Amino acid sequence: MQPTDNSTACPFCKGSNKCQASKNKACWCFNTSIPAELIALTPKQNIKKSCICNACVNLFNKNPKQFKGKYIQPKN
Description:
The chain has about 80 residues and is mainly α. The chain has helices at about 35-40, 55-60, 65-70.
C-alpha cells in the first residue's frame, strides 16, 4: 500500500472518501460507527489525515477477513 498525503483519498482503497468535514458541512461519517479495529488498521501516516471511505467501512463491517485480505499487507 502506497502512502498518500491526499486527505480526500481513502487510506485503503485510494478512492474518494467523500469527506465533507473540512468544508464545515455535515459528513456521512458523522453518523457512521467506524469500528476501532478498522481504525487501528489505518496506516500510521494517514491517521487523522485522511478518512476511510464508506465502501471500505461497509466491507470491513460485512467481512473483516475479506477486507484484510484485500487491503492489509502481511507483516514479514
